[in-house]
Amino acid sequence: MTITVYYHPGYAAPLGTHVMPIDKFARVAEALAGEPGIRLEEPSPLTAAQLERVHTREYIEAVRTGEPRALAESQKFPWTPELYPSVLLTGGGCLAAARRALDDGVAGALVSGFHHSHGDHGEGFCTFNSLVVAADALRAGDWMAGHPAKSIERVAVLDMDLHYGNGTASLATSRPWLFNLSIYGNDYDGNTAYRDVTERRHRDGANHRSIALAAGSGRSAMLAAMEEGLAMLEAWGRPDLLLYQAGADPYREDPYSPLDLDHDDLLERDRAAFAYAKRTGIPVAWVLAGGYTKDVSKVVRVHTNTSVAARDIFA
Ligand SMILES: [Zn+2]
User: How far is the CA of 196 from the centre of ligand 1 (A)?
Assistant: First the structure.
């Protein structure tokens, strides 16, 4: 089978020099072009109505217009008029992958899931929460003009970014049909990263669970946490869709990472996630997330490997 991966050059808004290597998704797309079994496709942007299911009108307007500026920049990006169209495309990529996964069993998008984004503000470079926007749109059977709707009830997020997915968890509290599982090495709250999870970690709820990886954790601890977390998901119940967020920032050379995970370890992470989806028959859509290693080619390699793992597991 050929796996569809959604990419659009408009994902990257020109934000100037920034800790977030904004061109990394273009470089992943370049690396994947010509890769057998993988087809790149362009998504449509989200609509404002799709955003409004998850985000307040005031926050959406702030991101669109730049005013009030503090709210427009709550995710810590300097606001530009290009920000809004770029995040609509990014969220559209996540939604397109999720919708495609319902037909094909698997699909991906070269976007971040933006898991720090809350309903009424952004945090940590995350403007709108693409994961929850996609889940809400599919539940409403609202996908895209001209495409058959396929509605679902229950959605689970497997969040394997380095940072705790606090925005997704906050949105899960009012969505009992959504399960958020965050396996993390840094806690995160109010635009502050807490590097040591033994000093601070998040409180869980019935449908937002988490497992903290202690500093120095390597492959075996990570895979054990995934097994434990997926058992929590099974106890919650079977989802109709799994959204898998594969961050590149757990990588051992990442300036934020206290974990001991190299490229092969993170490839095993991806393989474990896709093998679970294949074994259980739960459709899986993957997105990417943070990655701040100075040598961007190392970030690109983590992200490229995720698509390759999906292709190899589902081939
Ligand atoms: Zn992160």
Answer: 14
Q: Are 285 and 94 in contact (CB under 8 A)?
A: yes
φ and ψ at 20, to 5 degrees? -85, 110
Span from the CA of 145 to the centroid of ligand 1 (angstroms): 33
Query: Which amino acid does the sequence have at 18?
Result: H
What spacing in Å lies between the alpha carbon of 246 and ligand 1's midpoint? 10
Quote the ligand 1 centre to 150 CA distance (angstroms): 31
Q: Match 């020109």 to its residue by tokens.
A: 14
Element counts in the chain: helices (H) and strands (E): 10, 10
pTM: 0.96
Centre of ligand 1 from the C-alpha of residue 146, in Å: 35
Nearest one of 191, 175, 204 to 123, comparing CA atoms: 191
> Which residue, among 14, 310, 278, 302, has the nearest Cα to 161 in the 3D structure?
302
Q: Which two tokens stand for residue 2?
A: 């050929």
Ligand 1 centroid, distance to 153 Cα (angstroms):
28
What does the pLDDT look like over 191-248, one tens digit per residue? 788 887 877 788 899 999 999 999 999 999 999 999 999 999 999 999 999 999 999 9
Compute, in angstroms, the gap from residue 249 CA to the centroid of ligand 1.
6
Distance 162 CA to ligand 1 centre (A): 5
Q: What is the pLDDT of residues 5-57, one digit of tens each?
A: 999 999 987 665 555 667 899 999 999 999 999 999 999 999 999 999 999 99
Q: 21: CA distance to ligand 1 center in Å?
A: 13
